[in-house]
UniProtKB/TrEMBL annotation, chains A, B:
It comes from the Bacteria. One of its GO terms (molecular function) is thymidine phosphorylase activity. It catalyses: thymidine + phosphate = 2-deoxy-alpha-D-ribose 1-phosphate + thymine. Belongs to the thymidine/pyrimidine-nucleoside phosphorylase family. Type 2 subfamily. The lineage of its organism: Bacteria, Pseudomonadati, Pseudomonadota, Betaproteobacteria, Burkholderiales. Pfam families: Glycos_trans_3N, Glycos_transf_3, PYNP_C. The keyword Magnesium does not apply. Its EC number is 2.4.2.4. This is Putative thymidine phosphorylase. It comes from Variovorax soli. Residues 428-495 form the Pyrimidine nucleoside phosphorylase C-terminal domain. Gene3D superfamilies: 1.20.970.50, Nucleoside phosphorylase/phosphoribosyltransferase catalytic domain, Pyrimidine nucleoside phosphorylase-like, C-terminal domain. Keywords: Glycosyltransferase, Transferase. The keyword Cytoplasm does not apply. Signal peptide: none annotated.
Length: 501, 501
């Protein structure tokens, strides 16, 4: 296969996570290789390989001997202006045959899923093929054996950590409940009790904020393995973004497509959660499953089915999993969005009088359970220990220490624009549509705009007056604020109010 | 919803069929609206609406008051340099809820599919959502009622033609068999017999050439409805690209994603074929179903199932459908690729001694059946009439007249580079993998490079000597030629040769 040398150049074009390269359509390389627009091409520089989408340029800003890279491509390739890079046709992807097999109703074994995840993790699979894979895995698209095989495949194609000690604790929330930011409380409580808890989190998939998004407004989360190990050795815990490591890297590529598709899949959910936990060296994991009418899990029965899959797949791979069903009928705390949720966390840690008690109680419940799983507390005594550590300030001290170890404590940003949404009638709050709320927060800019989102002013069963503020939308631009507001106004009420009898 | 005015500018960047617009990330519009990279935005100029993907620019080639458009966007919007255009957030797509319903196992009715196709046809649905829809429709993903509803929905969202006469005949081949370019022969035969046959065709989906691709090497095929009507009124037939009209426009958007995904779907196939036929005003259609081990339909049983769906969905929508099962075990004629297949067609029409007889016989079979369906021949007499019209030159004269009416007869291009693939051993040709052949032709550049592809030198059951040429690959660039060759060499033999006993 022939290769061609070109001079690298930063295009100054941001294509988000999809790397794009630009070549002159009338240049030697495109003519010789038959490179067509929107084709995938392989770019090589300094031993690094990048698969990128090609866009043809027919304009003087690019020379025929140059290749321009979008921001994502530039970062991934790590080139400097004027570096020599090679380009060539990418190898034909045999793993896509497995994808077709699955789409047409076949089942995939570990070898097939590993081949597919290997290609996915190296960015060789295009977005539309990723979308097809996510779609075919949606709902119950993967059976038990496939879930085990996919989880193992995702672990296999990335790095693994061995902490050399036992137990290594972890927690996870399956999400779908705005404001449920307990990890930022549980990690410092557990670590303050001398139990190891190296937590990696993902960014938001279908929600307005992931744990990593919220934590990032308080401290850097882009830790590589070396940095993570240093933080954990010093403080006994961390809250890092898993995607900055090569831990289950295929998962992050899938998330890029899952986010706009807004589809949930039991198999992808189980594999995503457990592959990260196994790769990061966790041994015992507590998983929080909020149950509510519009949460990710809608009924206790569904939560119990998912629990069984998580525990069984975990057991098949040597990971002890426990689950905790929690209330998912309304947002937790007040904030929805990275910075707004971080502010709630700080209020709980600082034991302010206005700290959201529901967030605190959930953190105490989960931390107590983890302390018991770890053998640090007798059965039944975990919550009391967790509460004591939170109330005497040790959790706050530990959290600050972790933030400093991760690169320094930050103050969360505040949005430039806010708008209160008033009650259209007096009555009692009978339901809160957390899904619509999350969508409004996303339309307002969350999670990419860290300060954007919503703050709740009412909770279920509270009485409200006509015109009383129900929630406030926050956005960095007036356009995004109006966009979110027009969505809220076009929907059924986000907050349902029953007239009082 | 607020809008902003910017000055249009042609970016000189070719992003193939996906429109992309470029805005300065530090400009007023992006800051005010919170437009993020890879977001969809709506662009409005002169009453036309375009949905495009946004790429941020942070470079001096673009001013803050400008919006640059990729070639696809530029053509779709029809703007001129310096025109004032408006940009805004696109409306939230309610139809995507239907997509999620379907992914999660629900069924879609006509209203849901119509809403989805309406958004698809206007380019409002992103490629990854299109990929999810194609995936969920793959295989037998749509039931009978959904096939009828989807077909009707695809017709509804486009234009329809009424020819004001009866019968209006049509034919279609489901494809999957390289070189099966019978439409270019059947249309002139049938039209020469005085029967109306206004044929629209698609470009290649998963094959190396579609009928429209092959025809385009002989005459223009981008006819709008007015031009098509003029050609048909003058000559009684045409061979046009359906995508240049607004006939079943959603289908063309789906094909954009189906092509790289390389997935087949019974429901999408039925809806794609029949919606085009109904919208174009056809009343009786003959559908060619080639059956072979690696053809689109693998067995007679599968072909009969598909036949039943095509006839039943057609009947539910007032279209008479007949099907014809044909041999799909080896390529038809010699050429594979737009220009190479067109040359075979011309050889048959010109009655040269080297004309491929298999292509001729298939065309006679299908044309004869259509002449009988139209009542132009008695049952059993159609083939004799078709053969007479072909052999006495009336079909050639009619084909030339149709090409002239469509804009002028052309000479198909020849590729710059060719390479013969020799037999690795002596023996008898026992199988030809038409799927690998088509893939090699595509890697060589077909159908985008019209001259690229392959020519076959052997047929099933023929004896070959060691080193005798089996087929020749043709490409416009040495790179593409090497790419196709390295694929051929890495695969199981494309042409299987059994040692002679």
């Amino acid at each position: 296969m022939s290769t061609h040398r070109l001079l690298a150049r930063r295009a100054g074009i941001d294509t988000y996570q999809q790397p794009v390269v630009y070549l002159r359509s009338d240049g030697h390389v495109c003519r010789a290789e038959g490179f067509q627009s929107q084709a995938q091409i392989e770019v090589i520089a300094g031993g690094r390989h990048l698969l990128a989408i090609l866009h043809h340029v027919d304009s003087d800003w690019l020379r025929q001997d140059e290749i321009a890279l979008s921001e994502a491509g530039w970062t991934m390739l790590g080139a400097a202006n004027g570096d020599e890079v090679e380009v060539r046709h990418p190898p034909v992807l045999d793993s896509l045959a497995h994808l077709r097999t699955k789409v047409h109703g076949g089942r995939l074994d570990h070898a097939a899923l590993r081949a597919l995840m290997e290609d996915v993790s190296h960015g060789r699979v295009s977005d539309i093929h990723l979308a097809a894979f996510v779609t075919v895995c949606a709902g119950g698209g993967l059976d038990f054996d496939e879930m085990v095989a996919l989880t193992r495949a995702m672990v296999d194609v990335g790095e693994r950590i061995d902490w050399g000690v036992s137990p290594v604790m972890d927690k996870h929330c399956i999400g779908g409940l705005p404001g449920n930011r307990t990890s930022l409380l549980v990690v410092p409580i557990v670590a303050a009790c001398g139990v190891l808890m190296p937590k990696t989190s993902s960014r938001a998939i279908t929600s307005a904020a992931g744990t990593a998004d919220a934590m990032e407004t308080l401290a850097p989360v882009d830790l590589d393995l070396v940095a993570m190990r240093r933080v954990v050795e010093r403080e006994g815990g961390c809250i890092a973004w898993g995607g900055a490591t090569r831990i289950s890297p295929a998962d992050d590529m899938l998330i890029r497509v899952e986010r706009p598709l807004n589809l949930d899949s039991e198999g992808l959910l189980v594999a995503s959660i457990l592959s990260k936990k196994i790769a990061v060296g966790s041994q015992r994991v507590l998983i929080d499953l909020p149950v509510g009418p519009v949460a990710k899990v809608r009924s206790t029965a569904a939560a119990e089915l998912l629990s069984r899959s998580l525990m069984a797949v975990g057991a098949a791979l040597g990971l002890q999993v426990r689950t905790q069903l929690t209330d998912g009928t309304q947002p937790v705390g007040r904030g929805i969005g990275p910075a707004l949720e971080a502010m709630d966390v700080m209020a709980v840690l600082e034991r302010g009088s206005d700290a959201p008690s529901d967030l605190r109680e959930r953190a105490v419940l989960l931390a107590g359970e983890i302390l018991e799983m770890a053998g640090r507390s007798e059965p039944g005594a975990g919550q009391a220990l967790a509460r004591a550590v939170l109330l005497d300030g040790r959790a706050l001290a530990k959290f600050i220490a972790i933030c400093e170890a991760q690169g320094g404590l930050r103050v969360p940003p505040r949005a430039a624009h806010a708008h209160e949404v008033p009650a259209p009638a007096a009555g009692v709050v009978s339901a809160i549509d957390t899904r619509l709320l999350a969508r409004a927060a996303k339309l307002a800019g969350a999670p990419r705009d860290a300060a954007a989102g919503a703050t709740m002013h009412v909770r279920l069963h509270e009485s409200v007056d006509l015109g009383q503020p129900l929630f406030t939308l926050h956005a960095e631009s007036l356009g995004a604020l109006q966009y979110a507001l027009s969505f809220v106004r076009s929907q059924l009420p986000v907050v349902h109010i029953d007239a009082q009898p």
